[in-house]
C-alpha cells in the first residue's frame, strides 16, 4: 500500500468521524495556539525593551555611586561637579561626559501645572544620549556656566503646559522659580518606566541651586565605539575608586542591561512556551486516547482489512497516518489561529506581540511529533491484531 | 508483493495432519485434532458441522488467517509454515477471497470502494482498481449500485457486494463462511445461485462453511466436521470426480439472469 493511499484512507476516516476528529484536534489546536501567542508576546516584550534601551543612544556608560542591582541599598551620592571634571580628564574627551541631577518638581504655566522630572544636565548631554530636538536649541556651556534659568522641555510636558501655543521664549515656573523655555525635545517614549517625555532639562548648576544640594546623581560617558566600552567602563570606575577609596562606584552599559534583561525575558518566553507546550502534550494524550478508542471501535474493520490482505505495516501505517494527520491539521489550524490572535493582540492592545518563525516551526514540529509519538502505540496495537479475533469482535 | 503462486499447483488446499489447539486460561483445547484434506482447484465444497465442531477453525486455517499448531497446510502449493505474517497476508490477498456471514463491508464506504479494497493492498493504481471493482460489481448484478453505501442496500445486495469483493482480486478460492446465515430464504437462494454460477463460469473454487444442510446440499462435495476431525467426506480422495452430477444439474437450473435481476428493488 502506498503512502498516498494511506493518506486518502486516513482523511476519509477523519471525515467520517468529523465531530470526534474536530474535538481531538481541539487539544492540539489550543496547545499550538498557546505556544504561538505566548511566544509572540514574550518576544514582543523583549523586542520592546531592547528598543527602549537602544533608543537611549549608543555606547553609553552610566556611572553611579554604590551598587547597581536588585536589593542594592540606595546610596547617597557624594559626587559633585569636580568629580565630573575629574572623569572628563580621565576620559580625555570632555564632550563625551555629561552629568545628571534629578528631582521631582512641579512645573507651572499660569493655571496649568504638571509634575515633572527635573533633570540638571549640561551642554554635552546631546552628544551622548539620543535626544533630538523638535524646536529651539539645546543648552550651551554658557547656560551651564552662568546658571541661566533656561529649560528644554520634554514633549509631553510642553504639550500639557502650552497646548497649541509655541512655548519657545515663554516662561515656566519650576519649583517656584521662573525659567525661559529654549527648546522642546522630540517624543522618545519611556525607558524602564522612566517617562522621558515628562522630563524638564535645566543647566546642572541651576538645578543644584534650585534643589539646594551641590551633588549630582550620576555621570554618563559616551564611548567612541562598542569596542571601547568595556575598557572605558573599567577605567572610569577605577579612577573614581582611586579618588574615593571608601566608596564604591558602578558603571552600567547598555550591553549589560540588554544582556540581563534579554536573559530574563528569554527565560520568561521559554517558561511561557513550556507551559503552552504542556497543553500541547495533553492534546497529544487526547489523540492517543481517541486513537485507542478508534482502534477498538474499528477492530472488525481491521480484521477485515487483514483478511483482505492488509499486512501488519499497512494497518499500522494507516492508523499512524491518521494520528499524525489529526495533530498536523490541528497544528496548522493552531498556527493560523495563533498568528491571527497575535496580530489581533498587537493591533488591539498595548501588548507588543512579535510572531517568531521558530515558535511556528517548533509548534508545528511538536504537533507532528506528538502525532507520531502518541499514535505509535494505538497503531501498533491495530497492526498486531489477530485477524480471527478481530473479525469475531462485536 | 510476492510472485503469484505457481500455476501448476495441483491443489487449492492440501492439509496433512492439521491440528490447532488453543490455550484457554492455561487449559489446552484442541479445536482440530488431525485433519487430512485436499481440495482441488475449481471444486465446490461445503464444510458442515455443528458449532464447536472445528469447522470455523478449519476455515480460518484454510483462509490463512490463522496458523496450524502442527501438521502441514499448503495453499496453492505453498506451505504456509514457510511464510512470515507479511507473506501470509500477501498470499491471502492473492489467492483467497472471503465472504462472511455478516458481510463485513465498510459501512460508510461506497460499494465500489468496498469492492476495490483488496486491490489497495496489492498496490494496484486507483483507476485500475475502480475499473476492476466496477466489472466485479457488474458480474454480481450490481452495476447500478456502484456509489451506494451498504446502509442503502438490502442484505442480499450487501452480500453480493461482498462476493464481488471476494472476486475482484481473481482468487483461486472463495471461502464463504455461512454466506446465507444473515439472509432470508430468497436472498440466500440468490447468493447461492451466484456462488454456483461463479464456480461454474470462472472456475474459482468455492469452499462453503455452513451448518445448514440445505445450503450444504448445493455443493458438489460435503465435508462433515465433528470434534475436530473430518467425520465424513462425500468424495473419497481416490474418486475425485465425485457424485455431484445431480447437484451439477441443479445449479444449471438457476439461470444467471435471475441473479442479476434478483432483488434490485
UniProtKB/TrEMBL annotation, chain A:
Key word Cell membrane present: yes
Transmembrane segments: 21-41, 264-295, 316-345, 357-377
Gene Ontology MF terms in the entry: transmembrane transporter activity
Subcellular location: Cell membrane
Entry annotated with the keyword Transmembrane helix: yes
InterPro entries registered for this protein in UniProt: ABC3_permease_C (IPR003838), MacB_PCD (IPR025857), Macrolide_Exporter_MacB (IPR050250)
Main location per the UniProt record: membrane
Segments forming domain ABC3 transporter permease C-terminal: 274-387
MacB-like periplasmic core domain span: 21-237
Keywords: Cell membrane, Membrane, Transmembrane, Transmembrane helix
Membrane-protein topology: Multi-pass membrane protein
Pfam short name (any one): FtsX
GO cellular component annotations of the record: plasma membrane
PANTHER family in the record: ABC TRANSPORTER PERMEASE YTRF, MEMBRANE COMPONENT OF TRANSPORTER-RELATED
Protein family: Belongs to the ABC-4 integral membrane protein family.
Protein name per UniProt: ABC transporter permease
Organism: Planotetraspora mira
The organism's taxonomic lineage, starting at the top: Bacteria, Bacillati, Actinomycetota, Actinomycetes, Streptosporangiales
